[in-house]
Amino acid sequence: MFLGFWFTELGFKFFFMNIYVGNLNWGMTSDDLYNLFAPFGEVASAKIITDKFNNNRSKGFGFVEMPDADAAKTAISQLNETELEGRKIVVNESAPREDNGGGGGGFKKKSFGGGGGGFNRGGGGGGFNRGGGGGGYNRNRGEGGGGYNRF
User: Fold this and answer.
1) How many CA atoms lie within 13 A of 8 on its CB side?
2) d(CA 61, CA 20)
3) Rounded distance, CA 149 to CA 79, Å?
4) What is the pLDDT of residues 119-131, one digit of tens each?
5) What is the pTM of this model?
6) CA pair distance 45, 133, nearest whole angstrom
7) Do the Cβ atoms of 70 and 36 come closer than 8 Å?
8) Distant-in-sequence contacts of 121-128, Cβ < 8 A, 24+ apart
9) What DSSP string runs through the chain?
């Protein structure tokens, strides 16, 4: 459970119980989610997760934070597997996000790094490079070049 507090350089940091709400209708808003949980107690925040690459359309799930653990547990037990706007919703305590180094990926506009990469038969270089050397499918053993090099 995520209730409690710890000391920081600036004072106390308080925890709220974080609740996952899934299988939501895509038309549901954060305000609708807030209003769904408000009858059970104070709601610190309610947020529907949206897809920024798809016109901010709802991903069909969200999170609610409640400062009172008992009120949050009551809301979970009363709302889990109930029908809302034609869908049976899932409501449970959110698991903490694991910090496993995170991130990565994405398209880099500059070089993907040094040599290697691509399909090489003895030649140097690697794949798709913008600013790096070598590249692509090199059939001539021992020679560099080839591939798609933009700069």
Assistant:
1) 7
2) 7
3) 56
4) 445 545 545 445 5
5) 0.58
6) 50
7) no
8) none
9) ---EEEEETTEEEEE-EEEEEES--TT--HHHHHHHHGGGS--SEEEEEEETTTTTEEEEEEEEEES-HHHHHHHHHHHTT-EETTEE-EEEEPPPPP-SS----S--SS---SS--SEESS--B-SEESS--B-SEE-STT----SEE--
